[in-house]
Write a structure and sequence with these properties.
Number of helices: 15
Structural class: alpha/beta
Largest sheet: 9 strands, mixed
Radius of gyration: 25 Å
Bound molecules: 6-O-phosphono-beta-D-glucopyranose
Distance between the termini: 20 Å
């Protein structure tokens, strides 16, 4: 797949067309945790990039809410610092000037759902009224919970108590402003706590107004999976048990736990990555063709996949699921500590930093096709990929030699970095002899479309403003995913076996290789 030159203008044209078709009403975005890491690294840079692309509504206010008092100017400086460090495009002074005028900060702290805190929100409420009045905003609100999960429920209750959610009055003809809620993962620690959070939120917001973020769904390459599958007649007919030998999904991280031990010690890789990101990748790769692209039609099909996953319970967990924890090793040649030596980690921690597992989707399309998933921290590189390994051709003609068998075709979808996809195809090497060599048809976003793809948070924030929940997790899917991982967590909790380890900078413990090799397969080198 050769790129027909660099089509940077194509990307620009499409962005311009998008901006013409997207209808986004004026809105106030209230970020709880507005002075925190997520806002600094992701949300404020994403909003700035949407501004650069002309995709924000002409009237908007972005109000950070946090414990630590800041003036509006201090908050603008904080945002500027985040944009300078983390934006995919450099800060343009003129555009910044315009954008930063929409940023405000209000100090408020919600520690629990006692009545006292309602006063904190009362102050926020009057400030929002003033800002909205000054900027001519109609009171449409997006509340973003970029705060620890223990504060989700208290915050939502306070929003309700402080009457931040407009409810249409019976018989009132006027259109009421919208109030939408964005919730970051983790939604719960297990199935029960996820249900409790969902129940509490449902008391205040309708499901249609709740946007549960899984930022993997906002990645361009993940959105492209459906296009690849359903806009190309060459691929979809092959993606089933008749032709596919197995599927691999790897999300590898090079970094260690960093400064997040407080959260990660309670989570581990299964909760942090598999329950959400990897299962979302799996369901997007394997769902049945939806009858339309409407949010609930697509989300119904994804739910079907989650419900069709074979449950791994009891001894099946020991057989099909491998966990691991990194020990001291190397990152790009530099020595790095083991997980148990990281700041904030217990010296006898049993938290897994790596998971590999073999899953099966027990439906007509995928019956008998193993799906191998793996993810971990402190692996040799940052690389996320889905590869679909087709069955070998019959052992005749070019594949007749028992030694030197042909490479089966592999479709690999690179989620990040070097976004794109490749198809391995066997081809004849020029010359008098018939020698077959696997060549690659390779597509790279960078060289074909030029520029940098929008960050996941740009797309997701825009979708919330536009009221499109397609790329967000519905309550039933979150709970179905928890239901599937629960027996794995329970098996691990009841076991006192030592956790397999791997030195930082290697591809997980040897048990992960044995898992896939047991049936004569190999992890695809990344
Ligand atoms: C987050 C996890 O959801 O995803 C982190 O909590 C992880 O532990 C991160 O590092 C990975 O995201 P990305 O986009 O960098 O692959």
């Amino acid at each position: 797949m050769t790129a027909a030159g660099t089509l940077s203008t194509l990307a620009d044209e499409l962005a311009a067309a998008d901006s013409r078709t997207q209808t986004v009403d004026p809105v106030t975005i209230v970020i709880f945790g507005g002075g925190g890491d997520l806002a600094h690294r992701k949300l404020l840079p994403a909003l700035y990039n949407l501004h650069l692309d002309g995709l924000l509504p002409p009237r908007i206010a972005i109000v950070g809410v946090g414990r630590k008092a800041m003036t509006d100017q201090e908050y603008r400086d904080f945002a500027r610092d985040g944009v300078t460090q983390f934006s995919r495009r450099p800060l343009d002074p003129e555009a910044w000037e315009h954008f930063s005028g929409s940023l405000y900060f209000v100090a408020a702290s919600i520690d629990d759902d006692r009545g006292d805190d309602a006063r904190a929100l009362a102050a926020l409420g009057s400030r929002l009224d003033i800002i909205e009045h000054e900027r001519g905003l109609p009171g449409n609100r997006i509340y973003y919970l970029a705060i620890p999960p223990s504060l989700f429920v208290p915050t939502v209750k306070q929003l309700d108590r402080a009457r931040f959610i407009p409810h249409p009055r019976p018989g009132a003809p006027a259109k009421v402003p919208f109030a939408r809620l964005i919730v970051e993962k983790p939604i719960g620690h297990d199935l029960d706590s996820a249900r409790a959070i969902n129940d509490a939120i449902a008391q205040v917001f309708e499901e249609k107004d709740i946007y549960r973020i899984d930022h993997y769904l906002g990645k361009e390459t993940v959105q492209n999976i459906l296009v690849l599958r359903f806009a190309n007649s060459i691929l979809e007919p092959l993606l089933n048990q008749k032709y596919v030998d197995h599927v691999q999904i790897t999300v590898a991280e090079q970094e260690g736990v960093g400064t997040r031990a407080g959260y990660y010690e309670q989570a581990g890789a299964l909760r942090d990555m598999v329950q959400n990101h990897l299962l979302q990748l799996l369901s997007t790769t394997s769902l049945e063709p939806p009858r339309s692209l409407e949010a609930d039609v697509v989300r119904d099909q994804k739910l079907e996949v989650l419900l069709s996953l074979r449950r791994l319970e009891g001894e099946a967990v020991d057989r099909y699921v491998v966990r691991g924890q990194y020990t001291a090793g190397f990152d790009a040649g530099k020595p790095v500590p083991g997980y148990r030596e990281e700041r904030g980690v217990r010296p006898d921690s049993r938290t897994e930093t790596f998971v590999a597992l073999e899953a099966f989707i027990d439906n007509w399309r995928w019956a008998g096709v193993p799906l191998f998933l793996r993810t971990g921290k402190r692996l040799p590189k940052r690389a996320s990929e889905i590869s679909i390994h087709l069955k070998a051709v019959p052992p005749v003609l070019f594949n007749a030699k028992p030694h030197g068998q042909l490479d089966p075709n592999v479709l690999s979808i690179r989620i990040q970095p070097d976004e794109g996809f490749a198809l391995g195809i066997n081809s004849k090497i020029p010359g008098p002899k018939v020698r077959v060599y696997p060549v690659k048809m390779d597509f790279h976003y960078g060289s074909t479309f030029g520029g940098s793809s929008p960050e996941a948070y740009e797309r997701l924030l825009l979708d919330v403003m536009a009221g499109d929940p397609t790329l967000f997790m519905r309550r039933d899917a979150v709970e179905a995913a928890w239901r599937w991982v629960m027996p794995i967590l329970e098996r691990w909790q009841s076991s006192s076996d030592p956790i397999p380890t791997y030195p930082a900078g290697e591809w997980g413990p040897p048990e992960a290789d044995r898992l896939i090799q047991a049936e004569g397969r190999q992890w695809r080198p990344l």
